[in-house]
């Protein structure tokens, strides 16, 4: 926005990104996933057709 002085806003954005990158991001990445990816191929369940009593 041309009407704003970019000096203080750029400093605030820079400090917030540095805070995110150095403090918050490593804490978030240290959590383990509740559903880790598997190297196994997905297996389709073996289903049998329903036997209807009137057929």
Automatic annotation (TrEMBL):
Ranges of Low complexity composition bias in the record: 45-55
Species this chain originates from: Origma solitaria
Subcellular location: Mitochondrion membrane
Region (Disordered): 35-55
BP GO terms, sorted: proton motive force-driven ATP synthesis
Family: Belongs to the ATPase protein 8 family.
Domain of life: Eukaryota
Main location: mitochondrion
Molecular function per GO: proton transmembrane transporter activity
Cellular component annotations (GO), alphabetically ordered: mitochondrial membrane; proton-transporting ATP synthase complex
Membrane spanning residue stretches: 6-24
Membrane-topology descriptor: Single-pass membrane protein
Protein name per its UniProtKB record: ATP synthase complex subunit 8
Pfam families: ATP-synt_8
Key words of the record: ATP synthesis, CF(0), Hydrogen ion transport, Ion transport, Membrane, Mitochondrion, Transmembrane, Transmembrane helix, Transport
UniProt xrefs under PANTHER family: ATP SYNTHASE PROTEIN 8
